[in-house]
Amino acid sequence: MTRCRPPFPWLLLRFWFMRILPVWSLIALLMFLMQLAVCGIVHDNQGVKTLLGLIEVLPSIVKTALGGDGLQAGNLPGLIAIGHNHPFVLSLFLIFAVGVPTVLLPAEVQRGTMELILSRWATKTQIYICAALMTTAGMASLAMVVFLGTVTGTNIYDFGEPIPLYSFFQLAVNGGLCAAAFGAVALLSAASFRRTGTAVSVAVAFIVANYFAAILSMWWPRIRWLRSLTLFNYTNGRKIFGMHEWPVSDMLVLGAIILVVALAGGLIWRRRDLPL
Asked: Where are the domains of the chain?
């Protein structure tokens, strides 16, 4: 008898999409409002002075995390870009990147529902592909929400000079690939470990280590080489705003990382014995 390949489980993809949509919508709304708030502060000269005065009082490492030397009164794009790399926004990315794959894979295994999903003519590979699509596409789309928030804010408020929205679009695409890469790492963690808590801990540790390594390496010259080992190294804002070019090489590296890490997670997931 010929073995038939099961059709792609579109119903499972739709079910997971509807399950994740409320969380994604809440995170997207918070990110969008954050961009409006930053634009509202930056468009006002007095607000800019207050913001820069507050930043100068903060430790230099915090200033580096918010944008470094680009935070100057005459550099409107640099000030608006605070909303793209603010720790609050990055924390929201972290919640989605870690929460989605761990809820869809190891949590389903622990609850015993993965056995039911596998009994519905859905292969382990197809289940992993559904989780991968939810994670990486969700992270990339959140980056575009950040860009739309910037577009809306710059149209609501008058800055007295043109804002390079195309550069912010480039930044969103580059940042979306970086966010999807972190999502792929979280997906690999979710596919590798038996317990949800372990998968969450490993993914969070990796993302937080990347963030602090990137910030500390910019602040401490002796460990500047450490930034090249982080995923944040491939978000090239200087090339985008300074040279007005696409960071093609950085984007290709991020794309390769997403592909390799996602395939590694799929291979591990496929070889696992389920249910555990």
From this structure: 10-271
